[in-house]
Structures are given as C-alpha cells and as structure tokens.
Amino acid sequence: VHQSKLDFFCKLGYSKQDICKVLESLGQEALEDDVLKELIRMGSKPQALESQVQPAPLKLVARGSGSIPDMPPWLGEDGSDSSSHLRPIVIDGSNVAMSHGNKEVFSCWGIRLAVDWFRQRGHTYIKVFVPSWRKEPPRQDSPIADQHILEELEKQSILVYTPSRKVKGKRVVCYDDRYIVKVAYEKDGVIVSNDHYRDLQNENPEWKWFIEQRLLMYSFVSNRFMPPDDPLGRHGPTLNNFLSKKPVLPEPKWQPCPYGKKCTYGNKCKFYHPERPHQAQLSVADELRAKIKVSLSLGTEEEKSP
C-alpha cells in the first residue's frame, strides 16, 4: 500500500520526501484525498508546475547587437511596409532647381531638399527628370550650382535624364514635361512642380483631370522644402491623404450649440448639446410618428388578447 501510494503521487510530480513525511504523519491507511490535501497544505508543488511558474532566465545582450533587428518607424505592428500605401513621386527637376535658385541659377541643392523630404516620409518610388544637357559645364547664360548632386542622384537611380542632342551645332531637346506627366499618370503618382502643364492638359482629357488632381505645388522657405497642407484647397484633402493611396477620413466633429442650456429649439437644434447625451436626434414630426406607431401597436395587441 505504501509503495502504490508513493508511485501514484510521484507520477503527479510530488517529491518522495514530502510524500513520506505525509504518510508518516497520517498513517499508511490514509486516503489519497487526505494525503493530497496535506501535501497542498505543506506547500509542496508538483515539479511540472514549478517549472511552469519559474520564468525563463533573461538573456543579456550587448547594446546594439540584439538578435531582433530594430523595426523601422515606417513599419506598422503587423510588419507591413507603409510605403506600399504611399503614392509614387515624380519631380520636375528643372522647375524645382530654378525655383530654389530664384529663377536665376539651376540649383541642384533644391532637388536634393525635395528628394530628402519625400524620403523622410517613407516614399520609395521617387523619380526626378532633368534634361541631359544639364550634364554639360555651366555657362554664363545657364549657370548651375552643386552639379555633383545630379551625379549622386543618378547613381541612386533617382534622377533620370531626358534625351537631347546637337544637330549642326544646335541643341535638339525633347519635351521633358511629357515624360513627367506620362510616368506619373502610368504610376498613379503625384507630380511635384509649380508648372500647370496647360499645353499637355489640352492634348489629353485624361491628363487634364490627372494634372488638376495630382499636382503638388511647393515653396522654398530658408532652404526648406514646404508643400502646402491643403494641396487642393481649404475644402480638399489634407497633405497626408493627398500623398497616400488609402486616405484616412477624419472623425466627425460636433459643433457645440452657442446657446447652451438656454436653447429652445429642442430636437430641432442641429448643434451638439453635452447636457443631452441620450437624447435622440429626431425632429418633432419624426418623434410624433414614432409615438403614433407605438400606440397603434399597443392597441392591436390589446384587441388580440382575450
């Protein structure tokens, strides 16, 4: 009997020493329930439970050498890349550079400022179009500043040169605006320029709608690239919604009633009353119709009842 009880409680995970102490105090003929109660009273725990209760030892890792890589700020909790929700960006390089150079100098630094602004937002598809003759050394009639930036952006596959050539000493330049609008239209992206492209709007009605809805204008304030917070006007989308494929709708804001508790409009008042949290927003006519329906339903129930 002693051995059978010892084997039974050992299978439950209790130690032999605790089991023997309990059997000596209660006797060999003690019931299994009494032995179990005594083991619990003594504070003895099965080994399986003790291993579950004890937390796993913490592993010390040197700072900066963790096995789990740091999650970039543009990644969400589910690990999805938010750049997939951002629209492609197509920049009119000539327009941006001349705007930064006060329409006197082709300032390549302005292009860098615009590219860095969209990079910091998380945009991955950024293309800048510049005529290829800007590779040539600067002249007095066409000065260029910080020309090395163009080479750096070209190596990063951001800057694209539109073709141009010389025929009998004259430069033949392709229309780079057509490249800009066409690529932005095909990619369903955003055009960054202060140009309105009126000639291209007259060519294609689809391009006309696209340019009107996807043109992002900008300003340079103390070497800072600043697009407007309302690209399509005061009543249009915000800049975040304008640059994202999945715009976030703002929550409706209730305007408080200017009369407050002195308001005599009752349910007709279209403003928000904090002192009436449970009041139904119904007109007087709708409220009367609802009361008539309730009274009619009660009358039919009384007629049906014996």
From TrEMBL:
A single cellular component GO annotation: cytoplasmic ribonucleoprotein granule
Keywords: Endonuclease, Hydrolase, Magnesium, Metal-binding, Nuclease, Zinc, Zinc-finger
Molecular function GO terms recorded: hydrolase activity; mRNA binding; RNA endonuclease activity; zinc ion binding
Zinc listed as a keyword: yes
PROSITE patterns associated with the record: ZF_C3H1 (PS50103)
InterPro entries associated with the record: Rege-1_UBA-like, RNase_Zc3h12_NYN, ZC3H12/N4BP1_RNase_Reg, Znf_CCCH
Protein origin, superkingdom: Eukaryota
ZnF C3H1-type span: 251-276
Xref: Pfam families: RNase_Zc3h12a (PF11977), UBA_6 (PF18039)
Keyword Transferase attributed: no
Cofactor dependency: Mg(2+)
Residues of the C3H1-type domain: 251-276
Protein family according to the UniProt entry: Belongs to the ZC3H12 family.
Protein name: ZC12D ribonuclease
Organism, as annotated: Casuarius casuarius (Southern cassowary)
Gene name of the encoded protein: Zc3h12d
